[in-house]
Specification:
Layout: E1 7-10, H1 23-45, E2 54-56, H2 60-76, E3 92-94, H3 100-118, H4 126-132, E4 145-148, H5 153-167
């Protein structure tokens, strides 16, 4: 069984500065965008089920704040007006050293972080994770990956990589090393 991967890359260099632009705001935005990706998957692939989200324990105050923001998204919808009706009410928080699932998420997150941080989608550990990103049908750019904000050149990097691979006659879904 194929395990779909979901990821959000926030390019902080291209965030428009505003009074609310704090680490907490960025974390909330990333969570919101991740929930939208998971909602899309659940709606399309598991419409009769709801996802239970498990997050790394960040401490009592941070966990409570994230749980409250999560509840707000469920109650009102996301900023893109997407309802999260296929996601459970409250995320669970666990210490990563006690959860193989959270450790696996960390193992998937690092190659994504490194590839986009360095602007090198040919980073060897990125390709296997990239292949697991959720896709609608056989789309080239995976729906399970969100790059934010939309003006980030990282979006072009991903599009250019897929375009160059298509022109070479290689896989349309994964950059090759």
């Amino acid at each position: 069984m194929r395990m779909p991967v979901f990821a959000v890359v926030v390019d902080k260099r291209y965030l428009v500065p505003h009074a609310r632009l704090t680490a907490a705001w960025v974390h909330t935005k990333a969570w919101e965008l991740l929930c939208e990706r998971i909602q899309m998957f659940m709606h399309n692939e598991r419409p009769d089920q709801r996802a239970l989200l498990v997050a790394d324990d960040s401490g009592k105050v941070e966990n409570c704040a994230l749980a409250m923001r999560h509840a707000h998204f469920l109650e009102t919808a996301t900023s893109a007006r997407r309802r999260l009706d296929h996601i459970m009410d409250m995320p669970l928080f666990v210490r990563s050293e006690l959860s193989e699932g959270v450790q696996l998420a960390d193992l998937c997150a690092y190659p994504i972080h490194r590839a986009f941080r360095d602007g090198n989608l040919r980073y060897a550990q990125f390709a296997p994770v990239y292949e697991q990103l959720y896709r609608l049908d056989q789309e080239a750019v995976p729906a399970g990956l969100k790059i934010f904000p939309p003006v980030s050149p990282l979006r072009v990097l991903l599009s250019d990589e897929n375009q160059s691979e298509n022109e070479k006659g290689r896989s349309k879904t994964c950059p090759r090393i």
